[in-house]
Input
Amino acid sequence: MPELPEVEAVCRKLRPHAAGRRVIAMRVLRPGIVAPQQPEFVETQVRGKTISEVRRRGKNILLMFNGHSALHVHLRMTGNLTIAADARLRPATCRAYLELDSEKAIFYEDPRAIGRIRFLTAAETKSLIDSIGPEPLSPAFTVQSFVDAARQSRQPAKLYLMDQSRIAGLGNIYAAEALYEARVNPRKPIGSLSKKKLESLHAHIVAVLSDAVESACTGYSNPQHTGEAEWYPVAVYGREGETCRKCGRKIRRIAQGGRSTYYCPGCQK
Output
């Protein structure tokens, strides 16, 4: 699933073409992606609205309209948003598209059609934004707030970092990488970590995501062409059985929360 860096890359590529443009029409080609809303409802609500901002909130993309309503897009595993010069150029994997007053089009592509699009009222948009934790690359993600919140939890460190109500946008890949860099065992209760260790983890979350955003913006095109984290030099993710570059031990994989966690038993004790 695209994480914060990949979703940010999608938003940055979209903003220059979408912000300030009016939606002439929207077409939903795969009804399931807007369920439980009906395609006609979403198309009608979006038609004629001006996109004031392309906003990322965690792993969510919000095409914000004047009046604070929004078109909410979640890419899931294989979704992507692209810009084309003409709506007639849409590919076979296009599941919905918006025609803009610039004559350009925004395509929502998704080979597996498991992403989701929905229209949100102003109140629903605010509720979504408020339900997600602080953005880890924003001033709101301070060392002290992170330490204070973490000390109140008994969740395993990896699961805590992936909880979107705790930290926005941090997913499986970069949570594993940040824990490795901070030398934190992913199974250890996060509240049991020392203040110094939590401060180190905070610093590495910011550093890992900052580097990953830059690499994603340079190399990411979509989940089918550039794999998640492909341009980021992962130290542990996906490297089960390979040698740790720091201590020489073999990278291990365990299951946590239904997902694979990769870590080094030598560095992350």
Q: What stands out?
A: Residues 224-230 have pLDDT under 50 and may be disordered. Residues 4-131 form a domain with the N-terminal domain of MutM-like DNA repair proteins fold (CATH 3.20.190.10). Strands lie at 23-28, 51-57, 60-65, 70-74, 80-84, 94-100, 105-109, 116-120, 252-256, 259-263. The chain has seven helices and ten strands.
